[in-house]
Amino acid sequence: MVGISNILKETFKLKKEKEKKNLEEVDKDQHKDGDTKSHNREDVSDSAPRTAYRRWCLPLNYEDLFNVNRPTLGRYMDVVVFRAFVCAIIKYLGFNSIHKIYHAGEEFGRSLGVKTMDDLIMIFRELGIGIVKVVEESPVIKVRIYESVFCSGFPNIGECVCHYERGILAGCFESILNKRVKVVETRCCACGNDYCEFEVHVLGDLNK
Ligand SMILES: [Zn+2]
Fold this sequence. Notes:
alpha+beta, binds zinc ion
């Protein structure tokens, strides 16, 4: 696999157009309010969208992350690097970091712009997050992830650990269902299972 799918390309194209529009609106509002405060423009290249800078506190957006210039090494790295990074965040930021990791996953999941379960299955596979299988659709949606990027092969520590992945699922299901959702991991390779299993709970409408 050398590139990204058309769904992702389309998602980022739409996202960029939306950010450009937001930026124009922010500029219009500031002009109207007479707000001439600096926004650290010296830290941001002229082409970087300031909306992304504010959200991330870095002049990068998700589209930038997909631009990979590694002619020798390619797009992919050993999953150990990702695992070590997540473990380090939890170790150094403490238990509260788990919620932040979940919400970070949620935001990334939203950015993927999936519209159907087939999109979700394809994107999880393409990004190497895992192999998704829907095992129940009612009354609660249950999905399994085989070969999870984070936990497959972990010893049994008696704890579900895939907080970033359940966040990504939450963001994707929010887009698919157009509802606020909470995703809970009920089985995990780190609990001695051969796969991870997640329940998707609908919390309500998006605007409530
Ligand atoms: Zn897991």
